[in-house]
Amino acid sequence: MYDKRIKIFVILSAVLLLVCLLRLIQMQLLPDSSLQYEIEELKRQRGLSRRLKTIRGEILDRNGTVLAADEPQFQLCINYKLSCFFDERVRQAKLLKAAKKHKANPSGPAAEQKLLDVRKELEAKLEDLRHIIEKCTYFGLKHADIEERITEINNKIWNLRRYLAWKRNYPNKDFAQAQPDPNERLLLTAKIDIAEMYKSYPLLELKTDDDIFAAQVEFLDVNDVRILPKAKRFYPFGSVAAQTIGWVGPAKGHYKELFADDRLSSYLDDEVCGKRPGVEYVCETILRGKRGQEDWDIDRVLKNRTEPQFGKDVQLTLDIELQKKIEDYLADCRFNANCNAPTAVVVIEVETGDILALVSLPVFDLNRARYDYDDLADDPNEPLRNRAINKQYPPGSVIKPLILIAALESGKITPYETIPCPAQKAPREWPSCWLYNKYKTGHSDRWENYAHNAIKGSCNIYFSRLADRITPSILQQWLFNFGYGHISPLTPALRTSSNENRASSIEHRDLRQAQGKSQPVFQRAKAGDLSRYRVFKQAKEGFTA
Questions:
Q1: Domain ranges of the chain
Q2: I want to staple 333 with a disulfide (CB 3.0 to 4.6 A). Which of 129, 339, 381, 529 is the partner?
C-alpha cells in the first residue's frame, strides 16, 4: 500500500513538472506566444534610450560664404551623483537612513560604525566639491556663481524626485498634510530613483583651447567631472546683416509649439530655436533637423536605431561683403553726416531681382543677442527691427518713376514736355526743390526740365506738379499695380510671432532633404518685371516651395 502511494506521488510530480517544462518552452521558444510580447515590452520599458543629436543647417550668402553655423563648444560638466552632496536635503536624508538602520539594529556590532562611515563619506564628498569649486574659479568665475549653478542642478532634480514621491504615495492629498513628518518626506523623496540622477550637467563654458587643456589636467582624476562637447551657434560676421540673418535662443513658450507633435523634432529643455524676425526664425523648419535615437533593452541589446537628420542649409541672395561695406560706410561719420541716425538701405540687382544688400542700422552683435536681449529690446533706436522690410515709411523719391509712368501712360505728359523748376520757393503746401533749399537755384537753370532730366535731378517741382495732373483714382490704381497698398507676403513672415508661416513649409521639408541641396530664400524675379508685388510673391514661394 505504501509503495503504491509513492508511485502515485512520483507520477503526479512528474506530470506537474512536465506541464511546467512545456509551459516554459512555450514562453521562451515559441514566437507566437502571447507572453513573448509582454516579455519584450518589459525589457524595453526597463531598457535605456540614448538620443543622437542633430546639427543645425548653415546660412550662406550668394557666394557660399557662411553667415551662421554650428560649431563645437566644450563645457565642464558635473554628474549629479557628485553634485547632490552639496544639497543639504540629500545629506540629511542619507543620515536619517543610516540612523534608522542603527535604531532597527542598535545592538549590532557594526551599526554605530556604519553611521560614522556615512558621516565621513558626506564630509569627504563635500570637501571634494569645495576643491572642484575652487578649481572652477581658475576659469574666471566666482565661487558664488559656481555654487549657484550646482544649487540649480540639485534643486531641479530634487524637486522632480519630490513630485514623484508625492504622486506615487499620496496622489490625492497634499504631501505635507498626508505626511506631516518632514524627515519621512525626505526619506520618501530620497527613495525615488530617476534617470536624471545619472546624467552630467554643465557648470561652465571652456572658451579657449588653453581652458580645455587646463580643465583636462585639473580634473583628470575626478570621475564625476567631464568635458563634454555641445553645438553652439556662431555668426562669423558678428553684426553684419544682423536683422536679416536673425539669431537663436532658448526654445521656450510659443516657440516650442512648432514641433510639439514630433518626438524627435520637438525641443528639449537645453535646445535653441530661431528667434523672430530673421531667417533663423522664418526657415526654422529647414534649418532645424531631427534628433536620432538608440533604444537598448534590459539585456543591453540594441533594439532600434533612428539616424539623426541634419538640418539643411539656406542660401540667401545677399552679398555679405557688399552688405558690410555699406554698413561700415553709413556708420562712419567722416562720410555720413547722419551716421548716428537709424537708417535702411536695400540694393537690388535690377536684371534678376536678387536682393544683394538689406541694411538696417543700428545693428547688434548676433553672437551676443541672447545675452543682451533686454538691453536691445529697450533701446529707443530699435536695433532688433529690420527697417528695410518691417516698417512702413513714406515712399519719398522712389515713387517718382512710378508717377512718370502713370502720367505717360494716361497721356498727361509727353517725354519732352517741360515743367519749369525756377530758382524760387514753392507756394505754400507745395514742396520746394531740394536744389533751391540747399543752393537757392533751380533745375531750370541747369537744363530743360523734361522727363529724363527730372528723373536725373529727382526734381520735386516736376513730379509734384505732374502728380497733380493725374486723376487721383488713376494714380492710385497705378501705384496699386506696382505693389503699393498690398501687404507683402514676405514682411509678415518675418514679423509675426505666430508659427503659421514657418509651419507652412514643414510639408516641403522632406522634398528639400531629398534634393540634398541648399535652396535660395529670395527667388529671382524675371528680368524686366516691374511689379514689386510679384517679386515679393516669388520671395514668399522661395520659403515655402
A1: 396-481
A2: 339
